[in-house]
Structures are given as C-alpha cells and as structure tokens.
Specification:
Blueprint (H helix, E strand, L loop, with lengths): L2 H23 L1 H5 L14 H26 L3 H8 L1 H20 L8
Helix pairs in contact: 1-3, 1-4, 3-4, 3-5
Length: 111
Amino acid sequence: MTIKESKKQVWLYVASRLWFAVGFVSILPALFSFLIFDAPGSNKILPTLLLSWSVKAFPFIGIGSSLGIRFLKDHVLAVYLSLLPLVNVILFLAALYWLDVSCGGSFNCQP
C-alpha cells in the first residue's frame, strides 16, 4: 500500500465517522419535520415539500453513506458515496432559499 492509498483510507474513515455522527444527530430534526406543514396550505407548495423531504431523508442518507463507505472495497465508489450527503445539504439550502425568495420565508404563501 502506498502513502497516497493510506491517506485516502484515512480520509474515508474520517468521512465515514463524520457522516454517521451527523446522520445520527439529525434524527431529532427529522422527527419534527412534520411541523413544517403546520401552516394552512403549506402542503401544496413545492419548496416546503422539498424542505421537508430533505430533512426527513438526511438521517437515512448520512448513516447509509457511512455504512457504505466502511464496507466498500472500491475506493473510487466510496469517495463518490462520501459526497452523497452533500447533495442533500444542497437541496435543503436550495429549498430554504426558494422558500425565502418566493414566499418571503413564510410556509403558507399562495402560489
């Protein structure tokens, strides 16, 4: 094993532990994500749906990505899998921005 491969393995180990911890901690916000639909009419607006589903999916994606990184033998696929939770974070931020721009930050705007 070369030094480059060992550094990659250390990086994947750290990423695996990090995504597991973040995924585990994000279970609590996912349990309360149904409160996004407390405002009347908020279940018909696409930004609130995207926001809710990105919060609900993050624990599964974070923990699943962590376990996938640990058990994959192919390092290239493991690197791509370690970047998968970032897609969920980007979707969450995009939904927040979309909600802020189109509805003024309110969950019950009319389309």
